[in-house]
Design a protein that fits this description.
Blueprint (H helix, E strand, L loop, with lengths): L7 H6 L19 H15 L14 H26 L11 H12 L2 E3 L4 E3 L11 H8 L1 E2 L38 E2 L5 E2 L6 H9 L10 H4 L5 E5 L2 E6 L2 H13 L8 E5 L4 E5 L5 E2 L5 E2 L2 E2 L3 H6 L10 E8 L11 E4 H5 L5 E11 L9 E2 L32 E3 L1 E3 L7 E2 L2 E2 L7 E9 L5 E11 L6 E4 L4 E8 L6 E2 L7 E3 L10 H16 L18 H10 L7 E2 L1 E2 L11 E10 L4 H4 L29 H10 L2 H10 L3 E7 L6 E4 L4 E4 L8 E7 H8 L8 E5 L4 E6 L2 E7 L1
Parallel strand pairs: 6-9, 13-26, 14-24
Antiparallel strand pairs: 1-2, 3-4, 5-10, 6-7, 8-9, 11-12, 13-29, 14-26, 15-22, 16-18, 17-20, 18-19, 21-22, 23-24, 23-29, 25-28, 27-29, 30-33, 31-32, 34-35, 35-36
């Protein structure tokens, strides 16, 4: 029997589906008696622990959770249609026409997936891609972040489950409390998309699948007949399942059907499962004929990552020695001439956006033509006649890249030009004009900044040996070898003993030998038993043949005195990478700036132009040093100084009367016993916070020498008056 796409027999197959209570991602249709029986059978087998679908960490359940979340939007739409049907004369705007769109947009923007009916809450389901490097983007795109509390010490979710074997990388996981929880897909895995089921249905019936409705009861229960299930739909039964599966696999390998169509014969359930739907994670398998693999050497060349074609770092000549005192604590000393030649240089790309809004009173923001004369003309010299900076223009400190005007009802329009902070001088790379959903014009700038290494920038080798740039020295003062080779950077040898990064030493030896003989040395993570890794003895023999020392050490001369050093120096090329932690992105200082409304203290954070916080530990250090005036200046004068009026008679706070130009006590109703004192505004806020419960009071002793106040019966010294 052959079933075509528009054949009525194909619609009959839709009734043979798994019911929704167990497999929630498959549609439930009434009248599917055979599917209900199969469903109950699968449920009983799962209960008897023959199947691992019930495990919480099994990835077979992920599609069901997505279905539950998307189903709540369609159910809202269905309830709204039901209300319309009941009311009968209701207006059509009663339906929220974009409920599904708004729900998906909110989910993708916030990353929170909530299903109220099942009380399912998922956070962090969507993330912004970080494109620091090509290999870093691959790792971020394949990262799997589970919804599990990282602080719990449970070994089950941190292990690789049987359903994850071959699909997740067993090595690519972070250290610390997220170890084992945050996983990554293997590089060879593939997430499938939906395919048309019609050709597969026709093919299955052509290969001998019999429809259940055409079989008798005796034929249905034959011991050698197996159910054929395609994406959860029961197609029928086959009397020779192994022959059927073998024929399907041959067609798949010949390219007649999709390469990601899965065929699995389940002996326990007497079923053949065929999967061609989307959302499945597939892994490659090696085909073997009589125990001999079909993979040849040219196949392995196609599987190489080619990390060297688009690298994330550079090969640097590294000298392992102590040079001055600027290389302590993993700091590195860099050669200035190497930096001039381009070592460690990177391009930082940022996006700047501005929206020309339309207001309710009919006004809107405008982009004005820049003035060519006057005091603002110099800041707007990079703008074109349309008021925007052109691509290729250099934005210097205090330059304006958008000449924008915003309307104000009371005073008329006010110019609000946009500029960059004075920390860098980027270049305009691209300018894009678009509109948002409210028909407001949006202007997007893509700016780039070429940065060379500076003091404090962070570097790392491929073995986790990270360190900041401690000093940049002229090449004339750098040590050099007998052959005139001057290293690009110098690292402290004290970074090796405790970390035991022997792979970095072998990389230096192999790189030195590779430069000498002109070939790559294979560094395998599995060591010598793999048969491909180069032995240290062979690398050392190569060094000796080219005139180097057996252990990779060289005779070095001092660049300052010109005299030879008293020790041989371990020197050679090592692959170094520049990290994203750069001083230009972290450097911050301020004299004055915005403050918090409640406490009147400086704001927190570099993005808010906040101050540098003096915390409890810093305060304790200043107390230990006896720097009382520095504490007074840091914690009050430069933070939140405030003057209050204190009554010497009752000890309560008063207020200042500007008409009488004197302080008045709220309780005594006079200003005879009023003293003025300075204290932090946060302290005054703390005194007023208890309210009428504790009645905090002040006590002024010895005139205005010092002030004490009483809170909860405890006498505390506030500040000097």
């Amino acid at each position: 029997m052959v079933v075509r796409e528009n054949d009525p027999a194909l619609s009959d197959l839709q009734e043979k589906s798994y019911a929704a209570p167990i497999y929630v991602n498959i549609e439930y249709i009434t009248g599917s008696h055979g599917s209900k029986t199969t469903q109950m059978k699968c449920a009983s087998i799962c209960y008897k622990q023959y199947r691992d679908d019930k495990k919480q960490n099994s990835y077979k359940n992920g599609e069901g959770e997505i279905y539950l979340y998307l189903n709540q939007f369609t159910s809202k739409e269905g309830r709204a249609l039901g209300i319309l049907r009941d009311i009968f004369l209701a207006n059509i705007p009663f339906i929220v026409k974009d409920s599904i769109t708004v729900g998906l947009e909110r989910t993708l923007s916030t990353g929170n997936w909530d299903v109220k009916r099942f009380r399912m809450h998922r956070k962090g389901m969507t993330q912004v891609v970080a494109r620091l490097s090509y290999i870093g983007t691959l790792g971020h795109m394949t990262k799997i972040s589970p919804q599990f509390e990282k602080s719990r010490k449970v070994s089950g979710p941190r292990a690789l489950q049987p359903s994850q074997w071959g699909m997740l990388c067993p090595c690519d996981t972070p250290e610390g409390e997220a170890c084992g929880l945050v996983k990554n897909l293997a590089l060879m895995t593939h997430v499938t998309t939906d395919d048309d089921e019609g050709p597969l249905v026709s093919l299955c019936y052509s290969l001998g699948v019999e429809d259940l409705e055409l079989l008798s009861g005796e034929e249905l229960h034959m011991p050698n007949s197996y159910l054929i299930i395609l994406n959860g739909l029961i197609l029928g039964k086959h009397r020779r399942p192994q022959r059927f599966a073998k024929a399907m696999r041959k067609l798949r390998r010949a390219g007649k059907i999709g390469e990601f169509v899965s065929i699995f014969v389940n002996e326990k359930q007497h079923s053949v499962y065929i999967a061609s739907d989307g959302g499945r994670v597939c892994r490659p398998l090696v085909i073997a004929d009589k125990g001999v693999s079909r993979i040849k050497e040219h196949h392995m060349k196609e599987l190489r990552v080619r990390f060297d074609k688009l690298g994330a770092g550079q090969n640097a000549t590294v000298a392992v020695m102590s040079y001055s005192g600027y290389d302590i604590e993993d700091a590195i000393v860099m050669n200035k001439s190497s930096l001039d030649r381009g070592f460690g240089r990177c391009i930082v790309i940022k996006k700047m956006a501005a929206v020309s809004q339309k207001y309710e009173n009919g006004t809107s923001d405008r982009i004005l033509r820049p003035p060519r004369e006057g005091y603002e003309a110099e800041r707007m010299q990079i703008l074109d006649d349309d008021g925007l900076a052109a691509p290729g223009e250099i934005i210097r400190p205090h330059d304006i890249y958008i000449n924008k005007e915003s309307p104000i009802v009371t005073r008329g329009p006010v110019t609000s030009p946009m500029g960059l902070p004075d920390r860098e001088t980027p270049v305009v790379d691209r300018v894009a004009l678009c509109s948002d959903r409210n028909n407001n014009m949006c202007i997007k700038f893509m700016i780039r900044h070429t940065r060379r290494p500076e003091l404090g920038d962070k570097f790392s080798s491929r073995h986790g040996q990270k360190g900041v740039c401690g000093n940049i020295v002229q090449q004339e003062d750098f040590p050099f070898s007998e052959r005139g080779i001057c290293p690009d950077l110098i690292m402290n040898p004290h970074g090796f003993p405790s970390r035991m990064t022997v792979g970095k030493m072998i990389e230096l030896l192999g790189g030195k030998a590779g430069v000498s003989c002109g070939r790559f040395h294979y560094g395998s993570a599995f060591g010598e038993p793999s048969g491909h890794a180069d032995k240290v003895e062979a690398i050392s023999e190569t060094l000796v043949r080219h005139g180097f020392s057996y252990n990779g050490k060289d005779f070095i001369y001092s660049g300052i005195t010109g005299e030879p050093l008293q020790a041989y120096i371990f020197m050679g090329p090592i692959y170094y990478q520049k990290l994203k932690h750069m001083v230009l992105d972290k450097m911050h200082a301020r004299g004055s700036g915005p403050r918090v409304m409640i406490t009147r203290q400086p704001t927190e954070g570099r993005s808010r132009n906040g101050g540098l916080r003096v915390g409890e530990m810093e305060r304790d250090c200043l107390i230990a040093y006896g720097a009382s005036m520095l504490i007074y200046e840091r914690l009050m004068i430069s933070s939140d100084p405030f003057e209050v009026q204190v009554c010497r008679k009752c000890g309560l706070l008063g207020y200042y009367n500007f008409k009488l130009k004197t302080g008045i006590c709220s309780t005594c109703k006079n200003g005879e016993n009023i003293s003025t004192m300075k204290l932090p505004y946060a302290c005054k806020l703390l005194i007023q916070e208890p309210g009428d419960e504790y009645h905090p009071s002040f006590k002024v002793n010895g005139g205005l020498n010092y002030v004490l106040f009483m809170v909860c019966g405890i006498l505390l010294q506030i500040a000097e008056a």
